[in-house]
């Protein structure tokens, strides 16, 4: 595999007596589209915050592109893009102003920043209202702008926390095309999403976290084979297992559990 694009060893984060992420060790190969899954509260967003320097780990190590990564690793951060959970946009700027600001903060030349800003706004269908403030954007428009800002500097590693949430089907198709193009050019993408069908369609490798601990990690083919074996199935059964079935089996939910009903519905 060579030097991993992302590597963690014993990554742990505690908040008082609560352990949100517990002894997480995994690696992501360069050029991989990696899905990071888990139920609500499993520790996904906390993990991304540590991997991008937004949150200091309680214990453990992180390496990005073969180098030790900390909150002060500014040179490494210039090679990383991130769409965080809350997007963190500057709402009193226009989309164009915001992208130009981000490009300059990443150290891009002014001419390059201006060219890429115009290309990204056109690609994301955000160029029609140039004077519109980000505060007046719809949620889907803000999501597209956040993704544009995350890729304006051509990152080698891209972290995406629920990038398709609130995005319409047409925009989602555009974003998928862009992300797959980045993979083909050798970038590494680390994706969290609750939409398992999207993860299954885009990602070649998946890790599943549950109650802060890593409970599965590998290619989709390996995970299918492992779950099929645990269920006593083989052959064609392996091909029929969806990511949703794998996920439910690994986290201990779904098939075989009684469905709770409401008395008035």
Question: How would you briefly describe this protein structure?
Answer:
The protein is an alpha/beta fold.
Task: Give a quick set of tags describing it.
globular, 10 strands, 4-stranded antiparallel beta sheet, 6-stranded mixed beta sheet, alpha/beta, 10 helices, 265 residues
Describe this structure in words.
With 265 residues, the chain is an alpha/beta fold. Helix content is 37%, strand content 23%. The strands form 2 sheets. Strands 6-7-8-3-9-10 form a 6-stranded mixed sheet, with helices on both faces. The protein is globular and about 60 Å long. The model has no long low-confidence stretch (mean pLDDT 89).
> Main sheet, how many strands, which sense, barrel?
6 strands, mixed
| Overall pLDDT score | 89
Shape: globular
Strand residue percentage:
15-25%
Spatial order of strands in the largest sheet: 6-7-8-3-9-10
> Helix/strand-derived class?
alpha/beta
Give, in order, the helices and strands.
EEEHEEHEHHHEHEHEEHHH
What is the CA-CA span between the terminal residues? 53 Å
């Amino acid at each position: 595999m060579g030097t991993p694009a992302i590597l963690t060893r014993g990554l742990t984060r505690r908040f008082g007596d609560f352990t949100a992420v517990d002894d997480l060790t995994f690696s992501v190969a360069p050029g991989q589209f990696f899905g990071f899954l888990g139920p609500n509260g499993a520790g996904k967003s906390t993990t991304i915050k540590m991997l991008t320097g937004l949150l200091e780990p309680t214990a453990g190590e992180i390496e990005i592109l073969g180098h030790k990564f900390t909150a002060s690793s500014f040179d490494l951060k210039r090679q990383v893009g991130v769409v965080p959970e809350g997007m963190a946009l500057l709402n009193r700027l226009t989309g164009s102003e915001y992208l130009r600001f981000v490009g300059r903060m990443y150290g891009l030349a002014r001419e390059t920043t201006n060219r890429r800003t115009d290309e990204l706004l056109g690609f994301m269908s955000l160029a029609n209202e140039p004077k519109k403030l980000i505060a007046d954007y719809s949620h889907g428009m803000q999501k597209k702008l956040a993704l544009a800002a995350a890729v304006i500097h051509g990152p080698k590693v891209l972290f995406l926390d629920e990038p398709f949430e609130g995005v319409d089907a047409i925009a989602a198709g555009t974003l998928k095309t862009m992300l797959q193009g980045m993979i083909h050019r050798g970038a590494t993408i680390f994706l969290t999403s609750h939409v398992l069908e999207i993860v299954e369609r885009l990602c070649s490798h998946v890790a599943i976290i549950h109650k802060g601990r890593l409970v599965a990690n590998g290619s989709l083919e390996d995970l299918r084979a492992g779950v099929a074996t645990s269920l006593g199935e083989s052959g064609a059964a392996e091909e029929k297992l969806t990511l949703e079935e794998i996920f439910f089996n690994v986290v201990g939910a779904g098939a075989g559990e009684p469905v709770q009903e409401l008395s008035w519905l």
